[in-house]
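Lab manual, section 2.4: Encoding a predicted structure.

Procedure: take the sequence of the chain (192 residues), apply the prediction step described in section 2.3, and record the output as structure tokens. A sample record is shown.
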Amino acid sequence: MSRPCLPPGTTASPEPSASPDPAASPDPAAPARTSLALRGEVACPVSLTVADLRERWEQHRAEVVFDCATSGPRHHTFEGPLLREVVDDAKPVFDPRRRKDRSRFLLAVTGGDGHHTVLSWAEIDADFGNVPILLATTMDGRSLESAGSQLVVPTDRCGARYISAITSVWVGACAVPPAVTVPPQRTRATPT
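Recorded output:
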């Protein structure tokens, strides 16, 4: 079910504000308010915290094992909403009735450490790959409220596309590459 857009310039949750007094120390008991910006070719860009992701969408569970190049297999349990459902609510500007229109869209996900990855809309679309990629709100039963949401691709064998502390999800169409002109091949004359 699609939700209406928030008015332009508003966020699902208020952005963290800097303390007006630089000498004031933050309350250590207060959770951090990390958020991700969902933007690009969407009608409803929005900023979302882990609490927003937990409260506004159904939570799905993924038990994953991925091979870490440095420390071997890692076992984790994640919970969070499906990336597809969250992005759907931002209203990507493709025609949802046209599969070919949807299939040309990409998603670029960036983490707090600068690590990023690119996914195709077709990977998460129910008419194509239907991969249950999560924006995790918990990892192994612990809230990610202060650490930030994590991208979880449960079908991947390795964790290279797992993005921690997501800061941005960009959605947009892949531009058509320019046509490449192939020069005609020369033919060699055969001796007679």
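Check your result against the sample. Residues 7-32 have pLDDT under 50 and may be disordered.
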